[in-house]
Amino acid sequence: xxxxxxxxxxxxxxxxxxxxxxxxxxxxxxxxxxxxxxxxxxxxxxxxxxxxxxxxxxxxxxxxxxxxxxxxxxxxxxxxxxxxxxxxxxxxxxxxxxxxxxxxxxxxxxxxxxxxxxxxxxxxxxxxxxxxxxxxxxxxxxxxxxxxxxxxxxxxxxxxxxxxxxxxxxxxxxxxxxxxxxxxxxxxxxxxxxxxxxxxxxxxxxxxxxxxxxxxxxxxxxxxxxxxxxxxxxxxxxxxxxxxxxxxxxxxxxxxxxxxxxxxxxxxxxxxxxxxxxxxx
Length: 281
Prior knowledge:
The protein has 281 residues and is α/β, with parallel strands linked by helices. The protein has one domain (3-275): NADP-dependent oxidoreductase domain (TIM Barrel, Alpha-Beta Barrel). Helices cover 40% and strands 15% of the residues. It is built from eleven helices and ten strands. The protein has helices at residues 26-36, 50-60, 80-94, 111-123, 137-145, 165-172, 195-204, 208-218, 230-237, 246-253, 268-275; strands spanning 3-5, 11-13, 17-18, 40-42, 68-73, 99-104, 127-133, 153-157, 177-181, 222-223. An eight-stranded parallel sheet has the order 3-4-5-6-7-8-9-10. β1 and β2 (11-13) form a beta hairpin. α2 crosses α3, α3 packs across α4 and α7 packs across α8.
């Protein structure tokens, strides 16, 4: 599994294990993922599983320097002082001395204050890299041009039905690495039986999921698939022994619908819902 070098030369695995919605038996799932070879574990304060992930990391026996751990700051904790407190809470939950990547989870609230706190924590050695999640291009530009540090990662929805080519191009102008959440469209749109993906999968002796993930990787996009099935996890991390042709890449690109059917972060309803969502007292 290859690494991707971020703008500050920190290396991040191109494939990670996502833990969104993973609450039941989370520790066992993460331990299994680590056993299979995953070295990037992605979580968030709002996933309510940081403590289980911390236990799994400790029990795995894998040296800390071999792992890449990401968590995220929730909207409720935006702002300079709140971010410092939220970071300390996440670090304690994860039983770690430092984080590899810390992200602003949503593009709302005082994320400029949060960013200043994250820059400070990175300079002090508590975070190796900082970034954002769900930020649209104009927010990336705003943050990049008005702070000392451009986001090193933007974790956004990217899959064959929503390729986000223009957004990715804009991100890369500021040295921001795209990382795909929902790289399998969260199983929607019958993606695992898509005719084009299925045909390409048969030609390579792979699954449709592997084809969709490989398409992202060949576009220079990191991925964090999530599965509670060991067989699927093995597929998700077994992507190095085949290459999609240029024609196959174009055929997959033709599936793009130009919009999300999962969530729209520019929608007023989405903003109200996420801003009003509290994850602690």
